[in-house]
Design brief:
single chain; 119 residues; mainly alpha; Four Helix Bundle (Hemerythrin (Met), subunit A); 5 helices
Length: 119
Amino acid sequence: MDLKIQATLDQAEQLYYQAKDELCKPEEDVVPYSVCQSSFNSVTNYLNSFILRNGRDLPLQPGIEELLTQCRAIDERFQDLHLSPLYDPKRTEDVWMNMDTAQDFLSMAEKTRKLVTQV
């Protein structure tokens, strides 16, 4: 199980840095959708790794909202983590296409990363 936890955390880190690196490009070269997608997937992997590390089973329908609820049940510090813009992946085509959303998504990934890696 430790290998699965570490692999999930490593994947989260890779996706986080991928999003961060994308935003370091000149603005005209940034692909906001790519930043949003990588940030979204990094958050999912960070939350999954936290749940697994705490000996819990992942939800059968592991959406962001369900994962966050489970993390909050494990550690109250997650109460201050607000990921509601990530809850509705059906809106990706419309919402994930601008720089403000890309920066917001990366910020959520950073906050999630900080909570998960400081434990």
